[in-house]
Specification:
80% of the residues lie in helices and 0% in strands. It is mostly helical. The chain has a domain at 46-144. Helix 2 (23-43) runs antiparallel to helix 7 (115-152), helix 4 crosses helix 5 (61-89) and helix 6 runs antiparallel to helix 7. The longest helix has 38 residues, at 115-152.
Length: 155
């Protein structure tokens, strides 16, 4: 019986040839890197532009930083339940939803006229519906390939 304490080497036969040891596994890793980079770029737009946004709106840096906090909180909370949606729907619909949410959230944030709308656009759309939905399935998808490739390369 396999438990959470079972060593990974006992679960995967490291001497067996893996179908995952192909160029496809590297393509999965490359696409995952691009998607994660774009998603992470969206979520870190606020801290990168913190001072210019604060100066533009005449707000303190601390007030603008709360937007990034709301974004990370939204991403963290939604990541907790997104795995349950991954099982019945698969990765592709979630990735499309997250990509649309990221784009819409960035568009709405760029046209926001006050801090509340800006925080909602980033916290809900970019954080919860974008990064929170995208990051967990991406991590799960690439780990299925990278783990087998990494263990299979021991010899």
């Amino acid at each position: 019986m396999i438990s959470s304490r079972t060593p990974i080497a006992a679960v995967i036969d490291t001497n067996a040839p893996h179908a995952m040891d192909t160029s496809y596994s590297w393509r999965v890793a490359a696409v995952t890197l691009v998607m994660a980079s774009l998603g992470f770029g969206a979520i870190t737009a606020v801290p990168v532009l913190l001072k210019p946004i604060a100066a533009e709106w005449g707000r303190s840096v601390a007030e603008i930083a709360t937007v990034h906090s709301a974004t990370l909180l939204g991403a963290g909370v939604s990541s907790l339940w997104i795995g349950r949606l991954h099982d019945p729907f698969g990765f592709f619909p979630l990735a499309v939803t997250a990509s649309v949410a990221n784009g819409l959230g960035l568009k709405l944030a760029s046209t926001a006229s006050d801090l509340v709308h800006f925080a909602l656009a980033f916290g809900v759309l970019v954080g919860a519906c974008g990064q929170g939905v995208l990051f967990s399935p991406l991590t799960a998808a690439v780990s299925q390939w990278s783990l087998a490739v990494g263990i299979g390369q021991n010899d």
